[in-house]
Amino acid sequence: MTVRFSSIAVFDAEGKLVEDTGQKIDEIKLPAVDQVSDFAFSRDKFVQIYRGEKELHISTTERGEITKALVDKQPIRLKSEADVLRSDSEEGALRHWYGQRMYFWGYETVREPKGDGTRHVFYINAINIIP
What we know:
Elements: E1 2-11, E2 17-29, E3 37-41, E4 45-52, E5 55-62, E6 70-75, E7 84-98, E8 101-111, E9 118-128
Antiparallel strand pairs: 1-2, 3-4, 4-5, 5-6, 7-8, 8-9
């Protein structure tokens, strides 16, 4: 299965569509149906986010407006700024935790700057997506 888009639809109490928004996703191939993105919303904006290769893709849309989403890419931070990310495994996920917080996890191979070789790392990070 190939994923290329994620969307949010908001309905009122009668089931009528109130608003919707979406996020284009870089092509992600999955062996089965699985969640690849998540979202949070506040009174004035929707934020959709997914974990791409070596970075998080964040799309912010103002609620009630017909505007193009603001798209941002944030690199996945390493434990040390001196470390070099060699590879980021496709295995991992991003999930809503509570309120405006999400967590994401995965596996990566990191080259140490002092030439001590590489290490394989399991990471889990929490982020606040709407300040």
